[in-house]
Model the fold of this input.
Amino acid sequence: MIIRLSAGTAMGLALLCAPALAEPVKGAPDLTHNALYKAAALPKVACKLTKGTSAASTRKYITRLVGCLNAAWKPAIKGFVPVKVVFKDADDKESCSTGMDVAGSFSEICATQLRVRLADDWIKAKNDLTVFTSITRTWGGVVTGQTGIGEAWWGLENDASETVMNEHNRRYYLQLDCFVGVSAKAVGRQVKDWKPVVKVPEFWKNRFHGKTANRLYWSQQGYKSGKPGACNTWKASSAKVA
Done:
């Protein structure tokens, strides 16, 4: 059985919906025909971000970024609920989604909050690549949670073949890559090369991202269009989610 490690966090804001069958995904409208895909391009949000090398400046940076993401995505999601960022105590290393202790910095969705543990790896970093990428990647869980996508993905058949389930999981995580692109466009982030972005590691070993070429494709799709509708991985061919 494939365990969808981060789905529980994404589902904190989600509603129940029907399961899907087979590949490519059929019979799951909350995945393939979600209302999110009809939304206009996200509005441009003035989001001046400056990350220093102190804990206070890094917290300010993250809080500002989450506020910008709230503003950018609100028009695209019906009934949108603004998300608050909560900073964990420095000695609290436990991930609510995996139960693992994490040595460095990380962000994740816990129920309706975006929680962050700050350590020196993010605080002392000279640039904001890892922090920006990690927060916007985590934000994808807010999108999937508030649109029903996360719940529908979690409800996909668990008795399917491993090949089918692996593809389902790749579709989900590649969609998150695409949402990172949409978010970056909305907050005015200039990205000329997505390779460093997709190389930013997650705090748990995720083997469902798919090929680097496909990660780059979906990230660029989201960034170029600025529209959530560019991120419908659930109707894409298997080759695009390999």
Observations:
- The longest strand covers residues 106-110.
- Residues 9-237 form one domain.
- The two ends are 19 Å apart (CA to CA).
